[in-house]
Amino acid sequence: MTGRAIVITSGKGGVGKTTTSASLGAALALRGKRVLVVDGDIGLRNLDVIMGLENRIVFNLVDVAKGLCKPQQAIIKSKRSNNLYLLPASQTDDKDVISQKEMAEMLNKYKQEFDFILVDSPAGIEQGFRNACSGADEALIVTTPEVAAIRDADRVIGLLAAQGIEPRLIINRVDRDMVRRGDMLSPDDVCDILGIDQIGMVFRDDDIVVAANNGEPVVYNKESKAGDAFMKIADRVTGVDVPLETVDMRNSLWARLGRRLSAA
After folding, report:
1. Sign of dihedral through CA atoms 99, 102, 103, 105?
2. What is the pLDDT of residues 240-250, one digit of tens each?
3. CB 139 within 8 A of CB 167
4. Short-list 239, 223, 218, 222, CA closest to 25
């Protein structure tokens, strides 16, 4: 049985793709799955820092794709789990240094060893995004409840559909109080606008910043609400039926704006 390759993308930068990739990878590993997290952002790698593995890098994704090292030589085992590994990006190459075919062939090799391969896509919809989608079996779209982020996510959903990749949605940095006051789009509004299924919602949580600065995914903090949210997302990814979180929200100005955007 081969593993599942999941691209984690958004279009817009700064919405939490890298944090999601590291946190979801660690959560799946805690559930007993063998996981490879791939940094697809050639030239601007960050996953190694979020996972606290920046000092262990010898080879990288480009080296594997170009046959300069064996696939096993480039992956780095997590300090916290025997089930979690990182394939870092190159920090000195351009995003177009490898082709979509090379990326897909590389991921197919790793699928023989891992249950899940999570590819952290760079921002934008250029070559880096196309490479990150190569070989992916499915996609997770990360967005925040902001109009600009949602617009970019909508564009990415269309591009994924053209490649036959089915996306599901993670809504990040939801502020429950702002939603209740009508100052932030509700998760239901975001889903209505984008027209795809939600797989999880992550509330705004300062523990994520602390975890990133410490080089440890937030799921290792058992007191973190965000960590618990990522564990639930991991369960849903593996097919466990876990109810989605909800936020009470009725008929706000932002909700009406969401419906107008959906109809546009």
Report:
1. positive
2. 999 998 886 65
3. yes
4. 218
